[in-house]
Amino acid sequence: MRRFFHNLFELLEMIKIGHSVLALPFAFMGALLAARGLPDARTIFFILVAMVGARSAAMAFNRLADARIDAANPRTAGRALPAGKISRRATLLFIGVSAVLFMGAAAQLNRICFALSPVALLVILGYSLTKRFTSATHLVLGLSLGLAPLGGWLAVRGDLGLSVLVLAGAVLFWVAGFDILYALQDEEFDRRAGLFSLPARVGPTWARRLAALCHLAAALGFAVTGRLAGLGPIYAGAVALSSLILLAQHLLLSVRGPLRLPLAFFTLNGLVGLGLGLATWISLAI
Questions:
Q1: Tens of pLDDT along 210-266?
Q2: CB atoms within 10 A of CB 140
Q3: 3-state class (DSSP) for residue 181
Q4: How many whole angstroms separate alpha carbon 162 and alpha carbon 149?
């Protein structure tokens, strides 16, 4: 039993379970927009279960797929798999359980969510392989998280509306932008390893410019979502604050360099999703 809990702790640490905050608020935003308010407790519960299952499967698969690459990279050599803290077998079992949890929760929501759950898994798991052959890998990661608001909306309704499609696009560019910036840490290693991250392919200057364009598109998308959904001034204020947070990331990078990115990203980007999600809830409530 002690060994089981030790392995579970290592797995949860490996997938950074606390970083689920990046996508979860947008799943609930999609549900809030579809319901024009708070959905019922059952729907909220199974959206939560589905999101945790999907992200857990995706992150564990990413660590498994990248184990050899991580072992060769000094920045990531201490991760659980390359360091031998957890076995490949345990990781595969965790991926399987997480995927079943996701699909089971989708089945409890409605037929369309269950029918599309294998497609969603294909996208979120397939992302981990893309940096081996395309510089669009950052956009694929953005698409993976952009599915969150679409899934939240579909959990409530059986169709798709323009507002949630724009929100999904905004999330796509938001994630792609900060993933490009995050990849700056491994620019030299990725180039030597033949990986297709944008910093390795176009250099740090152009990578930062493209990340800035992605974040500009994201800010515009968040604003248009509010306009289409009629969310009002509280949400507009949250969009303005989120835009300032995105700007702060680029300024922090300019001042401190890429070695400070993990702290900046997983604190500041978490605030973007939480702020927009809370503002959506309040706006619809009043």
A1: 999 999 999 999 999 999 999 999 999 999 999 999 998 888 787 766 655 555 566
A2: 21
A3: helix
A4: 12
- Mark residue 194 as left, alpha or beta (left: phi above 0; alpha: psi -120 to 50; beta: remaining): left
**Paired tokens of 262:** 């993990």
Long-range residue pairs from 164-168, CB within 8 A, at least 24 positions apart, any chain: 164/30, 164/33, 164/34, 164/225, 166/221, 166/224, 166/225, 166/228, 167/26, 167/29, 167/30, 167/33, 167/221, 167/222, 167/225, 168/30
Question: What's the CA gap between 150 and 138, in Å, rounded?
Answer: 19
CA distances from 273 to 48, 157, 185, 222, 243 (A): 15, 22, 24, 11, 12
> Tokens 């809370």, residue?
278
> Hunting for tokens 């989120």 — which residue is that?
242
The total number of residues written for the chain in this structure: 286
Q: Using an 8 Å Cβ cutoff, are 179 and 215 in contact?
A: no
2-285 belongs to which homologous superfamily?
UbiA prenyltransferase (1.10.357.140)
Structure tokens at 248: 């702060």
> Tens digit of pLDDT for each residue in 8-54?
555 555 555 555 567 899 999 999 999 999 999 999 999 999 999 99
State the Cα–Cα distance between residues 60 and 92, nearest whole angstrom: 8
Q: Which of 266, 286, 269 is nearest to 16 (CA)?
A: 266
